[in-house]
Structure formats: structure tokens, C-alpha cells
Amino acid sequence: MDASRRVTPVAAPLRNLVVRALRQEILDDVMHPGDRLLESALCERYGVSRTVVREALRQLESERLITVLPNRGPIVSVLSVHDITSLYEVRGSLEGLAGELFARNASEADAVALINLLDKMESTYLHGDLRSRGSSKDTFYRILLAGGRNEILAEDLSRVHTRIGIFRHYAFLDEDRVSTSMLELRRIVDAAARQRDAARARAACEEHIRLAGELAIVEYRRRVPDLTHS
Amino acid sequence: MDASRRVTPVAAPLRNLVVRALRQEILDDVMHPGDRLLESALCERYGVSRTVVREALRQLESERLITVLPNRGPIVSVLSVHDITSLYEVRGSLEGLAGELFARNASEADAVALINLLDKMESTYLHGDLRSRGSSKDTFYRILLAGGRNEILAEDLSRVHTRIGIFRHYAFLDEDRVSTSMLELRRIVDAAARQRDAARARAACEEHIRLAGELAIVEYRRRVPDLTHS
DNA sequence: GAACATTAGTTCGTCAGACGAACGAAAGAG
DNA sequence: CTCTTTCGTTCGTCTGACGAACTAATGTTC
């Protein structure tokens, strides 16, 4: 049907391409939580065999991006309020560690890079649109995590970011939240890159996520009809 | 060859059974880091088809328990000193969160359960053997995490525990480390279950893992021939 | 006409067999 | 002894098949 989605083999296992494509479509909200993912449909969609699709599904399953209902098949995972709270707690803890490690391990060049990025972000983030806010935030994390010298943390955190998915972007729509967020980022950079104060860097990162989490819950409740009394 | 390993279908996808069996064998050091895992060999070993084996491998791969070399196939993952350091940093952060959440969220019954377990551990852990130490420590974590009311944290932490794998158990062989560890556990329980002091509980958990991590590195260097100048 | 039993269709879970591509080791040539 | 060729191994992918479990439609009975 939609040949443009068809994946092209390029020296990487097909399944990885399918994983990426499918993950991206879930993240981009092309598919919604609860939607069924029929193997046959995915085969057609990406132009690959069932073998490939099934292996891709197994990987997304262990990333918790999809949920496989017994004898029913996979659906896009549905997050409850409790899940979101939990994810933000974990995220806060990991990002706290990220800030701490940057303060302790980053090279002078890393520190300069973060400071420079923060400058740029006054326009790309504070006064940017949804897309530029997203990408500058991504860059921020890339530098922060690279400076911390802990690739496992980087990977685990990226997995959490993926799971939180669309809720992460809500913050970019709220101008108030963005300016507050910018203040927090300045505090993080000051502690982690300028002062090299591990404890403060950690606290600043945690606080940043605590606030982001609260907002995500508010947005979640606004978007998802109240199901608490069902 | 070894029909006793053959997996028996019992109302759960075969692949899950294979995942569990394979994971356990890696954890039990039946297979060693770097060992190749030939699909054909695994098919015979567990008496299942390639489809099942390959899907199981995909899951273990995203748990990072195995590493798939391009066009070569999977091997049991090899951890470097840096990986272990990184894993313990992440573990410390997550267990700190676990302690904090227990202090904040646990029911009175949870608290009592943890306090009672600590009593039992004076014999099952402090004066136990390798097996009883392992299982009482597992129980400790089960109660701690259940009280924190964050299933995502529980799952992520369990994944880290799995990846650290055998290094976790080294601590149970060192009598000195065990008594120190027991002291730390008392401190954790006191802060998390008795005082309900979230900050102290967190700090105690982190300190516990910091020390465990240092020991793991020492043991690692003892066991793995020095490769730094290769 | 409503409740229940039966049937047919869908989708997954698993298996078997096949083929090409990439890698590694062994054999042969210079 | 080194370089090249060849061959076997193992993965990556595809196809086709079958039973089991669920869903929906159909039909039967009261």
C-alpha cells in the first residue's frame, strides 16, 4: 500500500531497520497506545517477511514499547498514570547520576561544549518551535551523557526516554514550562560544567525531571479521559 | 546430547522458556563470556526450532546479556572493567531510589516484613553459605522494591542485576565483606523501615552499592588476566 | 425474541526446508 | 613463506504449512 515505508536493505540486519521504523512510528504517534500490531499488516507495511517482523517485535517487546497479549498478539503499550510517575522517578534518578558524572568526569572540552550549547539554546530552545526545542534538548543530553563517560547509563536513560515517548514533548508546547525549564538548564550547566559541583549538578538534574514529571501527569490527565472509576 | 535441558511446553510461549533457560545458564556460568552461541547448537540443546531460538536470542540481545557480532552470530557478552564500573554506578543510583521510595511509600506491613527479614538474615546471610546468602539477598530486594511501589524501577534494577551477573555473587564469598554488608543492611533497614527517613535510606543504599562495586572490580581484576596492555 | 451452542474465520506460535551472503579456515599456487 | 582460491559454516531472510486459541457470525432451542 504505502511503498514509501518499505525498508531498504543496507548492510544492517533488516530487523534493525524495522525496529527503528516501528519505534519511530510509535514515538511519532502514527500508532497509538492500544493499537494492535498485526504481523501480517507489518509484513506488508515494511515489505519484509514474518520472520523479520516477529524478531523486531521481540525486541520492541523487551523495550516495553509494545505489549504482547497472550494468544492475541502485540499492541502499542499503554501507560497508566502510575507508570508515568514511576518512569519519571527512574528518569530523575538516572539523570541525577548523569549530572553528577558530568561534573566528575567531563573533560574541559565537554564542559565548554555544554556551556556553548546553553548559549545557543537561548534561541533554539527558549524561543524555538517544537522541532528545534526537541532537537536542542536531544543535543543537550548527548553532550551531558558523553561527558559522564558512562555508556550504560546513556543507553538505559535513552530507553526510559523512549518509553516516556510523547509525554516528553508536551513540555515543549507550554511556554511557561519552557522558560522554567531554561532556568533549570542554566542551573544544571552552572553546577555541572562551571562549578563542577557533583552534588549540586545531581540535585539540579533531579529537580528538572521532578517538575517535568509533574507536568507530564497533568498533560496526561488532560489528554486521556478519566478512567479511574471504571 | 543432554535431553534433561530440553524444555517442555507448558502454556507459555516456548521462547520465554528458552530465554529463561539460556539466561540462567549464562548466569550460572555454564557458558562463559565470549562463548559463541550457535543457533543450531541451541536448537538441539533445547529441542526447539530455529524460529524460537532466534526470537529468544533477540530478547537476550536487548537485555545485553548476549552480543551479536555482525555476520558472525551471538556470543555471551563480555564486560570490561569500565562496563562494571558503569553498571555499578547505575545500580547505585537505582537502589538509592529504591531505598528512598520504600521510606516514602511502604506500608506498615512492608516495613515490618523488612525488619523481620533483617533478623532472619543474621543467620541466613551473615552466617549462611553461598546459596542462602544469595536467596536472602534476593528476598531483601523483593521486599524493598515491593514497598517502593515502582514496578518499572523493580524491572530495570533486575535487569542491571542480571547484567552484573556473576560479579554480584563474589561478595558472598568474602566473610569480611559479608559482615560489612550486614552492617550496611541494618543501616538501610533502620533508615527506610524504622525511621522512614528517605534521604538517609537513599544514601545508605548508594553507599552499599558503592562498596559492592569496589569489591566487584577487585574480584574482576583477580579473575580476569590483565589485558590493559594488549 | 433472547440465551445458548455451533461454526467459521482470524491470528498467533511453532515447525521444516530452502537459498544467498559473509566470514573463516584450509588448500593450493607462486 | 606469503598470497590467492576454494570450500564449509553460520547467519539472514523467505516461503509455506499446521494446530491452538480467540472472535465473530450463525443457527438452534425454549
TrEMBL record, chains A, B:
Keyword terms, alphabetized: DNA-binding, Transcription, Transcription regulation
Q: Which SMART domains match?
A: FCD, HTH_GNTR
Gene Ontology molecular functions = DNA binding; DNA-binding transcription factor activity
Q: Where is the HTH gntR-type domain?
A: 12-79
SUPFAM superfamilies this protein is in?
GntR ligand-binding domain-like, Winged helix' DNA-binding domain
Q: What is this protein called?
A: GntR family transcriptional regulator
Species of origin reads: Lacisediminihabitans profunda
